[in-house]
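Hello Y.,

Per our agreement to keep a running log of every chain we model this quarter, I'm adding this entry. I've kept the format consistent with earlier entries: sequence first, then predicted structure.
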Amino acid sequence: MLASLHDANGNVTVPGFADGILPPDPAIAEAIEAAGFDAGRYFDEIGARRPAPLPEGTDLLARQWLQPTLEFNGIAGGYAGPGTKTIIPATASAKITCRLVRGHDPEAVRETVAAHLRQITPSGYRLDLVEHGPGNAAFSLDPKLAGLAVTEAILEELLGAAPLRVAMGATVPIGGVFAKHLGVGTVFFSFSTSDEDYHAPNEFLRLSNFRLGMNAWSRLFERLAAT
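Predicted structure for the entry above:
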């Protein structure tokens, strides 16, 4: 049943899963082409074996930034203690999450996955679905947002190059909450770099990035106050 949710290349195959998806900001596609992303180096740095054939950097970024996901966070069933037992498991379970993209409806995605699993449940088995929270729509910033242009100008001043607009397969639901309930866009203006292992056991922040952030934020407040 779980294997039926993806094809051989890892693409989600649930009927209706992609319904409602909106095209991305054209600047994102331009950023993917301009990034010069090295797929081989990426796999080396995260400690993963390079797949064969190695994907193009642009293809890998497009997959990470622009495509929704359906993943298994845990699969359980049968005897898992020390030694062996030749039993037939009475139950099995899987924890599933999905990372959505612009235009996706969390409730609709949940129902399409549930409907697919119900349809393929074999005779003699019972499927129990347990929901954990309502989920949240993907957050996408208006490319014409005035505050975005201000932050980009500040970064170019401080770093000497114009920043790339990117998409990100991350879980930051507060942006969607602000958009839904306050009707405002949220610019994430952070200064931790990927090699600083944020959210990892050895997370750290360089003092140079801390000072850069303080400088940038002070300029941002000053510019926004004058806008």
